[in-house]
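User: I'm writing a short report section on ligand binding and want a predicted complex to refer to. Could you take this sequence and inosinic acid and write out the structure as tokens? A short remark afterwards would be nice.
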Amino acid sequence: MPKASDNSYWTQARITHITDSQWGDTGKGKLVDLAAQHASVIIKTNGGANAGHTVQNEFGTFKLHLIPAGFANPQALCIVGTGCVVDPHEFVKEYKDIVKRVSSPAQFLLSDKAHLVMPWHKVLDTLREVSRGKGAIGTTGRGIGPAYADRALRKGFRVGDLLKKSFMRDFTVELQAQERLIAWLKKEQGEKKTEQFDHKVVIREMKKTREILSPFIGNAYQAIQTANEQKKIIIGEAGQGALLDLDLGGYPYVTSSHPGVIGFMISTGFTPKQIDRVVGSTKAYITRVGNGPLPTELFDPTGEKLREIGHEYGATTGRPRRTGWFDAVATAYGSQTAGITELALTKLDVLDSFETLKICKGYSIDGKEYDKIVDSDPLWMEKAKPIYQELPGWLEDTSVVRSFADLPKRAKDYIHLLEKLVGIPIKVVSVGPSREATFYH
Ligand code: IMP
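Assistant: Sure. The structure tokens for the complex follow:
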């Protein structure tokens, strides 16, 4: 069994996708940061500035949305992949922060085929949420849905368009068209004040951003295929979580992309057989931000305690996250749909002071018991009443533990039961935000 300092786990496979088996926010940024120490290429596979991850390394704490972890590895190439939607201003902000604080950062590449999130997408995101009323999804307001919608409509701007001579003219024409649409939507919603953008400011900012971004734009597919031919270590970093997958998650309470292995394939062009493993970041309890069913949600002081100890506030929006006991049924479904082959259990230490722990091993729906999700439709999930298995807490500080063998017996029992119920081995355990607070099993 490797020791805490022995990160050989991350070199045991050459092509790995790191995703999240739940509803996001499980701490995969830290895992990708660890993996990226040994990787040549790290690809952010899906989503945009809706995702948020925190990375702690020798240069400090970074809260990033677009740039993948691995930015501090001077040997690495960090790619914002084809399946992403890129807010160009956000990319520039993150890039500037990194080059200010990291002595020799990684190289950066923006896929020319990724789509751009434009200023109007953010306005439309908010307007559509308002029009949904009680059925609002609880989006991050970062323009993700509208940007992906334009991509599907084949009318979006791609990152590569920034390099075209006609870009500023096309941008200005579209700005005017979108403004008319926004004015119409606002009127429909009863708003009198409909003017939206200060054209001079928006155009000036876009010109500046375009200049800064241009050198980073390139053919990501080619770069990834070349790295693969050279047998380099390649890591995918998903945004969000498997249960937020556009198609296999609980539509419509989902994001507009694919966090699982499908998203990795879109951003890399790899076929399933080329992918060695998919690591599923899995939190020792559960959280969700935004709306939609969460069967094990706690509305009591225990839920509040999980939120406070686990610092469960959205990295992007600062919203308090909904909290609950570990849901093995939902995690198993997320793992299956995302193609997860092994799990990395995160934030185990958050459970240190709980006298009793519960794990949801089944749902009771309309008098019937289920041990798996048979329908991810929210109407089905909303009716689910959790069936729990209780375990005694370990009531010891695990944040100082650096090997699986040194964990309290009750913590080992908890981990073994999770493995059994989810049906996938837990290979990595994280007991704190630092790189050192990690061991392998
Ligand atoms: P959107 O991706 O902003 O459109 O939001 C759609 C749903 O996904 C909402 O419930 C969001 O709260 C959720 N979501 C988006 N990004 C993240 C993330 O990085 N972590 C967790 N939830 C997210």
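A remark for your report: DSSP finds twelve helices and 20 strands in the chain. The pocket of inosinic acid is lined by residues 24-25, 50-52, 137-140, 142, 144-145, 239-240, 244, 253, 255-256, 289-290 (CB under 6 Å).
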